[in-house]
Batch of 2 targets.
Target 1
Amino acid sequence: FAPSAFTYNTMKAPASSSSLNMALPEGVTPIIIGVAADSGCGKSTFMRRLTNIFGGDVVGPLGGGFGAPGGWETNTLVSDLTTVICLDDYHLNDRNGRKVTGLTALNPLENNFDLMYEQVKALKEGKTVSKPIYNHVNGTLDTPETIEPTPIIIFEGLHPMHDDRVRDLLDFTLYLDISPDVKLNWKIQRDMEERGHSLESIMASIEARKPDFDAYIDPQKKLSDMIIEVLPTNLDKEDKKTLRVRCIQKEGVPDFAPCYLFDSGSTIEWTPSPEKLSSPAPGIKLKSGPEEYFGSKCQVVEMDGNFDNLQELVYIESALSNTKTKFYGELTQAMLALADAPGSNNGTGLMQTLAAFAIRDLYEKKSAQAAKAKKESTTAAAAA
Ligand SMILES: Nc1ncnc2c1ncn2[C@@H]1O[C@H](COP(=O)(O)OP(=O)(O)O)[C@@H](O)[C@H]1O
Ligand SMILES: O=C(COP(=O)(O)O)[C@H](O)[C@H](O)COP(=O)(O)O
């Protein structure tokens, strides 16, 4: 599941992308999802997991993906149900331009929110747009690509909730809140392996961007409907690798009901039976219960630790309620299908999979509401 194995394909850039994008079914208003996080926090990895779970037949990027043989450079991930758009494509300047302004890509002044709003609005109205491309490999702004709307459109990046106009168009919002040490490891790994940056430049970039992260990116978590927190384990203070992952789910979000362990409203701490779920040191522990998050009532599900055998996850699934799966075992099956994806042995893969089912459920609810409204208006028109 190396990104190159998934996000690239060898097809030449099509003259027009319409042959790749399925047209929006008549009368369907796309649902718009916003996913916010800092650079290197796992947004693209999450999107690949998510589109695998409910994206339908994945056709991959509009073109060949970055650096694919004969491929065309794009950040956009397309399937017949879902389009994932990287908000870095709305950077106002390229890398050299930012050297002139002295501003980081996290500064709103370096992002074109007017164009972002115009295109998010157009896509939500079912219109096709010509979207710019930011090339993370060489830092340039490349030839725009044609994007047609699909039933689900996900905008992932630094600022999906920064601009009020854009935020008001989002039907559901998520924030990936990764602890600094974990984020450092992930960003170094990715920027060296996939973007060819030096360790020194990555460290300098992270340091330079910290004030803008605190000012413009991090505050979005308070506005989000769901927050996935990735923290160091509580099971062993010396252990710097094992992750504790919390899925914070706001109460009262239209068409979304939080999932929980055992029964709603209880505060649960659970160490699964080692005979049914084997896990390496320092073990594994789950939690569930009501919490308050920046003044909002929430339901939190937490997994601390790793598990050895994905097949055994069905034991955890048996204790989870309101997962929005269509049958018992679908959660485990979805994770088994992506067993090689990063985070498939800990709470990051589990919580992202729960988020994917919540988005699918939201899409199905809104589609049913739209179909009902259309039927009622047709009936009313016929009666008039
Ligand atoms: N849950 C995870 N566990 C381990 N590594 C991860 C996880 N999610 C992402 N990564 C790694 O972190 C790096 C950054 O991930 P990426 O999805 O590119 O972040 P972003 O799109 O937010 O910049 C990549 O090397 C990726 O493999
Ligand atoms: O931080 C991000 C987000 O990228 P991602 O979320 O994919 O890490 C910027 O787009 C680049 O860092 C731009 O600056 P540069 O290209 O010079 O690093």
Target 2
Amino acid sequence: MKITVLNTGGTFNKRYNPIKGQLEVPTDNIALDKIVKSCHNVQFDIKNIVSKDSLDFTQEDRETILKEIQNSTSENIIIIHGTDTVDLTSKFIEDKIQGKKIVFTGAMVPMSIDEVEATMNFSQAIGFLNAPIENGIYLSMHGVVVEHSKLVKDRSVGQFLVKN
Ligand SMILES: NC(=O)C[C@H](N)C(=O)O
């Protein structure tokens, strides 16, 4: 199976900068490369298109993501995105894309600090794309992959939960 991965930053990718004394979104794919190295039956095409905390996203950043999806020849796309505004980006592209399976994912804890959550969220997106699912826009977080608008970030528990 072939999967295009569009990396747009967020906590998933963050690393500690000891000089500045803070976590930053790097412009590389080190976090992702670490995960995909252990997936031998999937061919990944990874593109780093935006490197930001999603709270800093502009309309232009969302247009960049949309254009990448529209120009991609791949049917299967995973988008690494910050969790704070993944709902806004998925809603923005929702009516503009057809004929593709797109799974957004991210993490609450950086891969550089604890690999478990980021690896699980990303891996379940791969497993989901490998199943006979319908085209659409989905979100993969915390043990669940569903249609994107059905999974919401509950800030009181620091986790994504399925909407009732
Ligand atoms: N967990 C995260 O990704 C939160 C981060 N502020 C972001 O939206 O990029």
